[in-house]
Amino acid sequence: MRFRMPTAILFLTVIGATMSLMAFDAPKRRSVENVDEKSPSRERIIDPLRPWQHADGRIEHRREFFESWDEWRVAQGSDFDYRCGTPSPPPGGPGGVAGFAGSDCDFEQTVPSEEYDPANGDLLIPVVVHIIQNDEGTLGWIDRATVEQQIRILNDDFSGVGVSSTDEVLGAGIRFVLAGVDPSGESTIGITWSQNSTWFNDQGAYWESLAWDPTRYLNIYTNTAGGNFGYVNALPAAGMAGEIEDRVVINWRTFGEGGDYGSPQDLGRILTHEAGHYLGLFHTFQDGCDAESCSSSGDRICDTPSQASPNFECSSAGSCGTVDAFENFMNYSWQVCMREFTSDQIRRMRCTIQTYRPALAMWAEQCAYTCEGDLNRDGHVNGSDLGLMLGKMGPVESELIVCGDFNFDGVIDGNDFGRILISWGDCASGPCDDVDTCDDGDECTIDYCAAGECVSLAIPFCGICGTAEAGSCYESNGSPGCSEMDCCEAVCAFDPYCCQITWDASCKNKALSGNFPECDG
Q: How far apart are CA 53 and CA 224, in angstroms?
């Protein structure tokens, strides 16, 4: 007979669990006197080779001061890649990386075999997010609601239903859940808060104080990310997966929808990109155009187009003779244009979990909650969901994590009912659910909603490239741009002068050079 908990014991357990969970909430914005007890003393040792943001917002680097991060980035020169600080894989070789070659998803190759198909089941990854502020508590604040929103965005993107997705976009069968139990076995909301200016500036070994067992939890940290939008400290095949420093770092200004950084990095997809690296993916433009074998060159993925350089807006340029993967999460496109991981990328990520992170994920039922506690997916947490929970009460007979086992302990009990009660009511609507349209009717803008507000991004060179009045791309035509859209956009992306000022002899020579496949003149 299936185990049944006596009603009185169940009631008391549910009440206790609910009160315990309600007690775990984000602290209010704190002064320096209310610092997390894990934070060490405030003796600052500033590394002059790395940027440091002071409480007044100024950035100090190499003994120079900058009024903003934008000013600092400009000073680093065009070669500085601030979008992603994840280290590139080492150059390939016939023997691979010593000690880590030979898998289906090492640095050398991707073998997208059937065992990594998402149809085999969902993989559930517990997450802890470490929010780090400066000493004064004036920079770096992120509340619980924003963290939960960011995890929803991450799951939507990995499920193929995020912003800009279509019916053809594939789901990865990988879900991320804020941890309900910490490494000591205590209830948690899966978020920590700390105040420490050294850690906030991505300096000092903060992970040694903050990390939860990296073999069992995805540790996400928010701080300045050293001036990058985000990074992973090492790709899994490098051999550091599960080490104490294993981490995803996201610039706090790009975390969540409508973050402080603003458009076009305002849809929470920096974490999607970096989670791809954490699970073994390269940039779509890694190592330039593919060589003879697509599975062992470029990004080691055969169903992404060969690509020599990143896309920075929503351009569909063809850097290797085919249209670039500007819609892929592993590119640098505007976030509103990103929408997918490909089938081979998904299989590589699942291979990475099984090969390099075997203790990280748990096999689980497919539970596409509208919100936590909404077991029947009707947009409400109510008696119907409670009835489904009662039908599952007791030890779980499946080897999978079942829907409703919110703390993943293999038992449906009062702790799980507590989750239902604190989620009771209508699932919260998205900030843009009530916005009918943001289309401004201008064909030279891309319009979308972020955090409930309409955003318009001007399409570079729109109205300049592709007009007959501009003149031929293969002559010095004396006007900005030229008449062939693809050729014009490709050349101007390389040399903006050609569209901003005039299409002169230098622009003509670029179009005729053979270095731009879009220019066939």
A: 8
Report yes or no: 122 and 366 within 8 Å, Cβ to Cβ.
yes
Measured CA to CA, the distance from residue 249 to residue 229 in angstroms comes to 9
- In this prediction the pTM is 0.86
- Helix/strand/coil for 109: coil
Query: pLDDT, tens digit, for every residue of 216-248?
Result: 999 999 999 999 999 999 999 999 999 999 999
Residue 273 has φ and ψ, to the nearest 5°, of -60, -50
CB 169 within 8 A of CB 339: yes
User: Tens of pLDDT along 153-202?
Assistant: 999 999 998 888 888 899 999 999 999 899 999 989 999 999 999 999 99
Per-position DSSP letters for 451-501, written without gaps between them:
TTEEEEEEPTTTTTTT-GGG--TTS--SSSS-S-HHHHHHHHHH-THHHHT
Q: How confident is the model at residue 2 (pLDDT cuts 50, 70, 90)?
A: very low
Helix ranges (H only) for 162-310 are 197-200, 207-210, 269-278
Written as one letter, the residue type at 366 is: Q
**Closest by CA position to 311, among listed 302, 323, 321, 303:** 323
Alpha helices per DSSP H over 5-139: 7-23, 69-75
Of 239, 217, 216, the residue nearest 100 (C-alpha): 239
340: number of CA atoms within 13 Å, CB side?
14
- Structure tokens belonging to residue 342: 């490909």
Of 214-218, 349-353, 418-422, 434-438, least confident by mean pLDDT is 418-422
* Bridge partner residues of 450 (DSSP): 453
Distances (CA, A) of 160 to 98, 185, 346: 35, 33, 11
Task: Please say whether the beta carbons of 416 and 405 come within 8 A.
Answer: yes
Alpha-carbon distance of 507 to 473, in angstroms, equals 8
Please answer whether residues 127 and 180 qualify as being in contact, where contact means their C-beta atoms are separated by less than 8 angstroms.
no
For residue 308, give both structure tokens: 């020599």
CB 251 within 8 A of CB 225: yes
Average pLDDT of 47-60?
A: 93
Q: Give me the pLDDT at residue 89, please.
A: 81
List, in order, residues 6 or more apart from 95 with CB less than 8 Å away: 101
Give the C-alpha separation, 451 to 430, whole Å. 8
The one-letter code for the residue type at 440 is: D
Give the separation between CA 349 and CA 308, rounded to whole angstroms.
22
Residue ranges in 221-356 assigned as alpha helix (H): 269-278, 343-356
Could you give the maximum distance between any two Cα atoms of the chain, in Å? Answer: 86
Q: How far apart are CA 498 and CA 511, in angstroms?
A: 11
CA distance 150 to 272: 10
List phi, psi (to 5°) of 375: -70, -30
Rounded Cα–Cα distance for residues 302 and 130 (Å): 36
| pLDDT, tens digit (0-9, with 9 covering 90-100), for 427-443 | 887 889 889 899 999 98
